[in-house]
Design goal:
homodimer, 488 residues, alpha+beta, 6-stranded mixed beta sheet, 16 helices, 19 strands, 34% helix, binds manganese (II) ion
């Protein structure tokens, strides 16, 4: 008897056990939203497509399958190649699974009878995929609601579910998308429990790295340690994005770590590091950045910039609550950074005049943070009819411009970078001349950058911090010198 | 000044440094083969497409980019989105790179001038992709040779390179494929050096696992340890396939470890383990399976089956050399397994009679091994006009049926499994009745299975073993008890 019949997900006693009730609740929330839409008639059925295993180019190997995010949200199915249907009126849920050939048992594992899958995923029925058309014919849906909509971070579309013969039915592919996206924006208590878990494991992994890092190590060794900690101790087979392990001048490259910049530099004493790394558990993301000197002791310069960013991070954390506009939070972070850089002699003049010409974006060129959930850059940032994306420097990279509400999960990740190409151009630009102090700025051009990224859930009156890592200069220096970190 | 200008690949002093000369030699080999083909006129130009970064579903995240295998073989380019051309007559090589937008420098890293790329990859010229059509117009090729052909392991095709306006040229997409495939089948000294390196790192990682494994651990913790060792110590960011960490009855599932069977079982004292794991370095694969009891001490039953498979493995290793037919090696391994199982009382009767009805495939249902190189299941197994795939049990899964030649790299991986679904059916089948001893076989039904997989290169007179791990029962028990393993 396989443990797959148990309607839960677990990676052992040291990990978090998740009941598939989470998905029943998600489906219920979605159906009640859809029932309130007048364009959705009685008898509507939602039809979703699960992710498919991908092979690399012409080969027979590929990355470990990870479920498509909407499908995971709705069903929690671990395997590839499924479809799913939800009757909006009754909430009944049906999964369609591939009919596996007999040889599957030899090569890939025990073929679970459909009854086992039904128990495992606690759905009302499980049918084979080649019976989808028959099943829909029997249901006589008034309309089949499929999913089509643009992801506002990637510009890409989720693949719409279909089957041979779907043209005999009424299909609507626009009603479902905004509703399921809005459901994903607001996290349930069950989802928050997973996010707290994966943020805890990832925090522990960051602390492990802080304790083991030494000058002379390669940046990729940090990635390796982090991944190993999250998987070995937390059951996180995936990270929620490619680890950014940037040291020295690389710390000013925001998305460092990809195959073109593969975390391959040797870290040297004196370097500042920006480690932006997050584990993923049960397809839920974390996204945490810790910044510190590789040798464990901040220089005066590093302390100044670090505390500048920390002050911005904390100002935002203290200000967020329902009703607050996210773009205002970005501007708040920017203002704190400008004030601090002024007090350290890199800038001069009036802060609000600086903000008018976007001096902030010269040092803080990315957005303050983003929604986070099943995707690290979670959906729902720019819903149809909501606040539009700004066209201003910095602000235009914000992945959402929404008013905050309780149960939204976001990152708070202000940063301050010394990007030569940006700053050299700015220092010879009339527009900025009155504000920039080139002599001082030039002392920082090889500095790299600092980002401090936390994950929070908006609560009734403020926000709850989901990660717990050393944040003050004193805490970091103490932990890196072997001291305890007791918050976790 | 970036180290990218150096025409070599390295992951630091502890790793292997590879000169891009490797690819110049590969291109030269390919051109001289093509020049001998009468259908290839003077003035032909090869045109290849590099791999592209993939995003998961609608999101903006995806797996770390890994170069397409033919493109890597020809150029060694680390970045995604390139094309490449090789003039067959002169051997001149040109890379076409994406023209990156200015913001790339902020988000993704320094934009290397084309001159740097030309130095880094030691090619004759580097142009932007939007100039491909102009470049070809200037070259006036007699024919553009593009790559199209079926991968005989996956049944899939590599994506053919193209550009807007290619229809104005003569294009041939069939001549290149068999020639480049044949080049990939035979490894150069430079390629063998990488394969030796990645097999050494992966061997060390297997030994690390043997030393640390304990009952009560989760199978995925083995995967995590292995990956960490290969990356942290060897610079292997990827494994060459998904780690198979099968324990107990799972050891009889040949491709265990995928998302549907995610290495999630708790290993218990007494379990046999099959750990099939290989690191990848510079896109070159390793593929090693170690089998042993989780608690470090073989039972009598485990010893019998283990030594059965080891004997088959060694018989093949001792028999391989140029001129030998790979299918004969499969049958040799099968024969040894049948003999041993007979001597242990699981089978009875005449071995050659057993082979006539394919009794071997009941216990050893997969192929003996496969070509290995840039792909773990490397190309060239069934070239057009060569030996065809058998339709017999066991043999039909062989990924090649070729006659061995020097510089081919292959795995030798016999196995003996107790797959309930296969054996229960066989024990009630008249065809097998005279050979099977159900009373003894039934004692093994929960055993799982054993696979012993080595990587070898065929030499002038035999074969060189590329991996070095404890193989005898005595060696394994000693290393698992903390003893030294000195072969490495
Ligand atoms: Mn982030
Ligand atoms: Mn293999």
């Amino acid at each position: 008897k396989l443990n797959k019949e148990t309607p839960e997900f677990s990676r052992g006693p040291a990990s978090l056990t998740i009941s598939v009730e989470l998905h029943a609740e998600n489906r219920k929330r979605l159906c009640s939203k859809l029932k309130k839409i007048k364009e959705v008639p009685a008898g509507a059925i939602i039809f979703l497509k699960g992710g498919e295993e991908e092979l690399r180019n012409d080969t027979d190997v590929g990355p470990v399958f990870r479920q498509e995010s909407y499908f995971h949200w709705a069903f929690g199915v671990e395997e590839s190649g499924f479809f799913g249907a939800i009757a909006v009126d009754s909430g009944n849920a049906v999964l369609f699974c591939p009919e596996l050939p007999k040889e599957y048992a030899v090569w890939l594992g025990k073929i679970l009878p459909r009854e086992h899958l039904q128990q495992r995923y606690a759905v009302d029925d499980v049918c084979f995929i080649n019976k989808i058309a028959d099943w829909f014919a029997g249901q006589k849906p008034s309309v089949i609601l499929t999913l089509k909509g643009k992801n506002t971070d990637s510009g890409n579309y989720a693949e719409e579910a279909t089957f041979t013969g779907i043209e005999k039915f009424t299909v609507n592919n626009s009603l479902l998308f905004p509703e399921i996206v809005e459901c994903r924006v607001f996290k349930t208590a069950k989802e928050l429990e997973i996010l707290r878990y994966v943020c805890r494991i990832s925090s522990e992994a960051h602390i492990e790295v802080m304790r083991k890092i030494k000058p002379g190590m390669k940046e990729f060794q940090i990635e390796s340690m982090f991944q190993h900690y999250c998987y070995y101790n937390g059951g996180c087979r995936h990270t929620s994005y490619t680890c950014i392990c940037a040291s020295g001048a690389n710390a000013a490259i925001l998305h460092y770590g990809h195959a073109g910049e593969p975390n391959s530099r040797t870290m040297e004493a004196g370097d500042i590091c920006n480690f932006d790394m997050g584990g993923e558990y049960y397809c839920y993301a974390s996204d945490i950045t810790c910044a510190y000197p590789v040798n464990g002791k901040f220089t005066d310069q590093q302390k100044k910039i670090y505390n500048t960013v920390l002050k911005a991070n904390q100002a935002v954390f203290n200000a967020v609550k329902p009703g607050v506009l996210w773009t205002d939070m970005h501007l708040l972070a920017e203002k704190v950074i400008l004030e601090e850089l002024t007090s350290h002699g890199l800038l001069k003049g009036d802060i609000s005049e600086m903000q008018k010409v976007n001096v902030g974006a010269l040092f803080f060129p990315h957005g303050l943070g983003h929604l986070m959930g099943i995707d690290v850059h979670d959906v729902g940032g720019y819903p149809e009819g909501g606040n539009e994306r700004s066209t201003l420097p910095g602000l235009k990279y914000l992945r959402t411009a929404r008013v905050l509400e309780a149960d939204m999960v976001l990152t708070i990740e202000p940063g301050c970078y010394f990007i030569e190409s940006i700053l050299e151009e700015a220092m010879s630009d009339e527009k900025y001349k009155g504000f920039l102090c080139p002599d001082v700025i030039r002392q920082y051009l090889k500095f790299g950058g600092i980002r401090i990224e936390d994950d929070v859930v908006i609560t009734k009156n403020g926000a709850e911090l989901l990660n717990h890592v050393p944040r003050t200069v004193e805490e970091i220096e103490s932990v890196m010198a072997g001291g305890k970190f007791t918050k976790i």
